[in-house]
UniProtKB/TrEMBL annotation:
This is Inositol 1,4,5-trisphosphate receptor-interacting protein. It holds the Pfam family Mab-21_C. It comes from Apaloderma vittatum (Bar-tailed trogon). It is found in: Cell membrane; Nucleus outer membrane. One of its GO terms (cellular component) is plasma membrane. Belongs to the ITPRIP family. PANTHER family: CELL FATE DETERMINING PROTEIN MAB21-RELATED, INOSITOL 1,4,5-TRISPHOSPHATE RECEPTOR-INTERACTING PROTEIN. Residues 1-15 form the signal peptide. Residues 398-471 form the Mab-21-like HhH/H2TH-like domain. Keywords: Cell membrane, Coiled coil, Glycoprotein, Membrane, Nucleus, Receptor, Signal, Transmembrane, Transmembrane helix.
Amino acid sequence: MPMGIFRVCLVVITAIVNHPLLFPKDNGTVLENTDEIIQKMKEREERLRLEQLRLGQEIADQEATQKSLGNAAEVVEETKEEKIRWDMWTAFSMVLWRQDFQEGNWQDTGGEEDDMAVLGKAFKGVALPDKAVLASFYEKRILATTGDMARMREMVEGFADDLLEALRSVCNRDADMEVEDCMGVGSMYENWRVRKPFVCDLVVPFAPPEPYCFRSQIWCSGDSFPPDEQGYGTIKVCRAGEDATGCICDKTKLGEDMLCLLHSQANTTRPSSEMEDLLCFKNTQYLDANQVMKWFQLAVTKAWNRISHKYEFDLSFSLLDLPGALKIKFRSGKSIAFNLTPVVQYENSDVYFISHFPRSGLAADLPSTTHWFLTFAVYERRFIQLVSKALPANACHVSCLQILAFLHGKQCSLTGPSGLTNYHLKTVMLHLLQARPSQDWAPEKLEARLQDMLKFLEKCLHEKKLYHFFIGNGKVPAELGFPIIFQRAEPLNLFRPFVLHRDVYRKTVDTFHEMLRNTSALINEYTVHIP
């Protein structure tokens, strides 16, 4: 016990000694990049705090082993001496790290080969907390913070319906786009969001005014699309009864003495101003995402001006890089954020072209503003609901996803963002839901399924392959009514950008390894003590 206390004190003393303001430069002034150093040292102190938790847990395990194995006292003492030497070397290395950083010589010398040598072995040394600790963590940390999501969803949906009804009243029915009712998608409506602030994601389908219609073209429709455009499509604005490629007179030989009654030689193309009024890209018939968002923002502003007198709060656009992000601000200072994003329906399905999608550091920029990303969020929500009916009561699939999302979010707050997103984590859960029998998701198997998700994610990172759950999946339940064209398409690798961006890949691998090492400490830190 005294030796364990000495180890903990050694880590604390090292953290204090390494504070950037304790030993400034020789000139007695604070470093020019003091803020940067303080931020890095705060992150270092946070890691040291987690190390303290791990050390405390190791000390307790060693004491239990010492009591049950009295005949192995000498071996335990040698092990302690070796760990003390390791702690001394760690403390000395931290001092050197601080000195090198101040001199501008600190750098990461690990290469991709070193990452790959560790990857695949990282999970073998990780011991997750037992079932009782995981259950207590989930109840005290996850459920305690997500209890008011239902009330928030109800409030946001009611206000959004009122706002869209006002939007329809201020729009010109003969010239403006026709707006339909909104739908809730994403983690808030699948009941697995864990990190605040809670943000509701609502999509709003819209259609062109008569006599126009939308004709869509997707990457898997037969035409060749470059690899960076897979998962995208284009939307062409046409007149009703007109093919997406043009009038039938363009494809049929009418003869020299015959004319098309709809199109004369003097009017083979539509005026540019008409197509721009229909939110198309300049001099084309293709719907422009930026034009759509400008129109939508203006329409929402007009609608709010009409109904603002009914409410005792303010409404504003909150994010510049996400045009549909809105914020309700109450007079008390509290606020509620939600996203209201216009989408276009793909044919008669529940697949939608989305104008703007939350981007991560891993995702590439859109090929152009006429390329729209396809979202399968409605089918993802339906699949989870369908599978949940066959699972045991209080199944642990959502709990696993919530715990994994919490751990990853907490780790990113310590070490910075990585290429992994919550959508990747949900995709892992969807694959395992389809692969494992329903009885494997009983609530008492939470620990085993959480291990499965971590192992599966580690394997995907190692191979740089995580396939989209729906695209190329021929085993999608027929009850969903999922379009067959996407089932027959080539699988879409969500980790393809890792092949192109090695620096992002290394950062993601490092963050994942650090999360694995901190898993027990993070869970124990946020868990009420269990005797």
